[in-house]
Amino acid sequence: MSTRLPVVVLLSALAACASQQSPPRPAPPLPKTGSAYEAAASIELPKREAIEQPGLHHVYRLSDRIVSGAEPEGEAAFEAIAAMGVKTILSVDGKAPDAATAAKYGLRYVHVPIRYKGIESEEMLAIAKTFREAEGPFFVHCFHGQHRGPAAAAVGRVVLDGAPREQAIAEMRQWCGTSKKYEGLYGAIAFGELPTPAATEGFGFDFAPAHGFKGTRAAMVEMSRSFETLEALAKNQWKPLTEHPDARSLGEAERTLRALEAVASSESLAGEPADYQGWMRESHDAAKSLVELLTRLEQGDAAAAAGAVEKVAYLKKRCDDCHKGYRN
Ligand code: HEC
User: Fold this and answer.
1) Ligand 1 pocket list (CB less than 6 A)
2) Are 196 and 246 within one domain?
3) CA angle 277–288–232, rounded 5-degree value
4) Nearest atom of ligand 1 to the alpha carbon of 278
5) Rg of the chain over CA atoms, in angstroms?
6) Is the dihedral of CA 170, 171, 177, 182 positive or negative?
7) Can you give the pLDDT at residue 223?
8) In this structure, are 141 and 268 located in the same domain?
9) For a substitution probing ligand 1, which of 220, 285, 321 has the most ligand atoms within 8 Å of its CB?
10) Which atom number of ligand 1 is nearest to the Cα of residue 287?
11) Are residues 151 and 185 in the same domain?
């Protein structure tokens, strides 16, 4: 029949189209014979250097469709990302992305903040859905582009590119340099359930360019405002600041303490590593004694001033120590 050939052509065209559009089923989890970090050395990848450009660091092109890197800084960085052909930027950092600058270069931002201890199931669904339903190629970043960003990119390597799990974690370890400390991130990719196409299709997610943590991040932002003022006041020997004459030391210390209490009492803290919990506890205790010292100072006990200055320095050290390990 003369109609037969066109039907066959049409069917094969449809099949080709469908195979291009329906994402692969994620490769099965690896057997848990050791740590996920060890499994990331089970295959040896050829050496690769990061691509470095102004404002854009630690960049690795993992596939045609996925690039991993650090947070883009400034216009030139977004321009370079657009020049790579990228259409969507996925940020897994806590900070709200610079979606306005990205938009100038035709780039869409999707924001799914994750933590260092691993990827929670809703976060995983949002990340997988982004890879499957937003327009690629994708640039995936956290802050330094070493730990959380590469883990999210690895999700894309499995759910979008159909890469085997051992390949995806090998890229995290051998190229991007994800630290051994973040076994939770490795484990999510090596051993975790990755959502099926049906699961991401049914998951409600708005692809918004700015999401936040309900707890930690909001508290950090709040705390940094009051703590900065406290540092300025401490430097000024607790005398009023010319640039901010309304700032009261005690009030700022109380705000800092409240923010720390919010983090220290949150359920999620229990899942954090011991050093993290330690810094949080020490910060909380230090903020509490700072409030006591500044109360005494307000009541006229001038001897409390020096101790309060020391407490601020002690607190600052805790912020920095914790950020070194957990905010990169
Ligand atoms: C025990 C750990 C810990 C301590 C102590 C700590 N932080 Fe943080 N902080 C974090 C983590 C983790 C993040 C990253 C949150 C994210 O990006 O999702 C963060 C993020 C921040 C941010 C960025 C928020 C944003 O916009 O994303 C600021 C600002 C900040 N911290 C200020 C402070 C200050 C000021 C102190 C000390 C008074 C402090 N932090 C103490 C763990 C800590």
Assistant:
1) 93-95, 113, 213, 216-217, 220-221, 223-224, 227, 276, 279-280, 283, 315, 318-319, 322-323, 326-327
2) no
3) 100
4) 1
5) 24
6) negative
7) 86
8) no
9) 220
10) 38
11) yes
Tell me how many domains the chain contains: 2
Clarify whether residues 193 and 220 are in a common domain.
no
**CA 265 distance to own-chain centroid:** 22
Tokens 């943590």 sit on residue: 213
Q: From the CB of residue 322, how many other CB atoms can be counted at a distance below 10 Å?
A: 18
Most confident of 10-19, 128-137, 254-263: 128-137
List the domain range (segments joined by +) for residue 235: 216-326
Q: Which residue has the tokens 């045609």?
A: 64
Question: Which structure tokens are listed for 277?
Answer: 């919990």
Distance CA 310, CA 207 (A): 45
Average pLDDT over residues 272-297: 93
Across 30-39, 207-216, 303-312, least confident range: 207-216
Q: How far is the CA of 159 from the centre of ligand 1 (A)?
A: 31
Number of neighbouring beta carbons within 10 Å of residue 82: 17
Q: For the sheet containing 66-69, what is the strand order?
A: 51-53, 56-61, 66-69, 138-141, 88-91, 108-111
Token digits for 258? Answer: 């409240």
Is residue 14 a part of any domain in this protein? no
**% of the chain residues with pLDDT over 90:** 68
Tell me: the pLDDT tens digits for 96-116?
A: 788 999 999 999 999 998 888
User: What CATH number is associated with residue 240?
Assistant: 1.20.120
